[in-house]
Structure formats: C-alpha cells, structure tokens
Amino acid sequence: MPSELNPRSSSPLYQQVMDDIVHDIASGLYRPGEKIPSEADLGDIYDVSRITVRRAVEELVKQGKLTKRQGKGTFVNEAEEGPSSFQNDDIVQSFSVTCEANGVVPGAVLVTRELAPLPDGGAAFFGGACDGRAVRVKRVRTADGRPLMVEDNFFDPERYQFLLESDLDGCSIFRLIEERCGLVPRNSDSCVLSMERADIELAGLLQVPENEPLFSVRGEYLDQYGNPMFLGIQHVVGKHYSFRL
C-alpha cells in the first residue's frame, strides 16, 4: 500500500511519489492494464499538491511505466518482454529501487551481522576513527525471490550501531538509514568493478554452480556531506545484471 512520504528527505516529493508508485506496481497493487488513482486521489493519498503528483505521473509516462488515456485516466503498462536482466545506472543506487524500476519485488535475507574487523584498506577510509572495526552486514539480495547478489557492507560503528539491532530482513538499508539519520549515500572515486568466480560459500548463497562468473563491486561511499558512510563489497550474478559506467 502507499507509504508515507518523508519531507526531510533529500529526495524531492515527486520522486518519492514516483518511487512509491513503482513499488506498488512491482508488488502487484497496481497490475498491468489497470487504472491507477486519479491525480486528485493520489494528492490526497500522499498529502501533496496536484502539481507534485502530475510531475510524478508525467515522469513515469516518459519512462514507459504508465499511459494516459484521454478522458479515461492513467493506466499501468504491460511489462516488456525480454531477457531477465537488471541494469543499474548508478552503482550506489539502492538495490530495492533498482528492482522496482525493473518491475520486480526486491528482497533481502540476512546472512550475518556483527561488529567485525575491517577488510584490507578499510581503516584508511574511515580515518582510523573506528579502531579497525565496523558494523558488518552481509545479506543475500533477491528479485522476485531469486538470489541476485550477496552484499557485504561495513558501516561506521558509532553512527550506524543501530543496524546491529534493526530488522534487516526484506528491507532497504539505505531507506532505513535515511529515515533514521537523514543521510543518503553518494559515489566516491574509489569504486572497482571486476570479475570473479563463485566459491563454495557464494555458490550456495546465490544458488548457482561453483565457479559461476560473478561481478565483484568494491566501493567506498560517502554521505551527502562527504563523511564516510560504508565500505561495500557486492558479489553479483553476472548473467542477470549489467552496469552502465
């Protein structure tokens, strides 16, 4: 169902409305061929102006997700036929948002979370402030229930200690951090995309054969104020994902 918008978010209200409509399409609330609520009704649902709703709808029409029919309303387009692959135009973009933009339901299965030593090179990124340790969160990310990646992220233990207690199954950590702290990730210059082969552990988590080709993405990410946010290592099933760099 539609979610409450966050007026303190750095994301504009029309973008939040867009993201929520895309999520509702992916979850099946609005099905292909069905009419979505009118602009007036959406304004009431999200408690925003019709101008804000109109821009969100127009952007989704441009993206091919909605179609306006004169005198009838706005309808959800049929999903395009094509290969089951995902394109991420921004490596730091939330996996949940990427899935929703591709018309599938995102998921997350927690593998482990702990206060753990940083990987090689991590201490320099955090400036030595975290004494060589970080909040480590390792999860399998799924799309329509199918494993697509293992994300292994290391967060500043002082600012993000709440992640050790939060429910992290099935949620977007980026959204959780934005709601709790008002912070959003930004790309840094230190981001490396390479290829690897699935070892026994990754093969089991991703439900692929051992030695399956994977993308490996290692990056150091800042918040919008330039402060270290997290060091991330992602292991992505290559045949289901593509990056535009």
Would you write up a description of this structure?
- With 245 residues, the protein is of the alpha+beta class.
- The protein has 2 domains: 13-76, Arc Repressor Mutant, subunit A, CATH 1.10.10.10; 86-243, 3-Layer(aba) Sandwich (Chorismate lyase), CATH 3.40.1410.10.
- It has 7 helices and 11 strands.
- The chain has helices at 13-27, 39-46, 50-62, 95-101, 122-125, 173-181, 200-206, and strands at residues 66-69, 73-76, 86-88, 106-117, 133-143, 146-155, 185-186, 191-197, 213-223, 228-237, 241-243.
- Strands 4, 5, 6, 7, 8, 9 and 10 form a 7-stranded antiparallel beta sheet that branches. It has a two-stranded antiparallel sheet with strand order 1-2.
- A hairpin with a 4-residue loop joins β9 (213-223) and β10 (228-237).
- α2 packs across α3.
- The longest helix is centred in the N-terminal third of the chain and has 15 residues, at 13-27.
- The protein is globular, with a radius of gyration of 19 Å.
- It starts with 12 loop residues before the first helix and ends with a strand.
- Mean pLDDT is 83; it is low at 81-91.
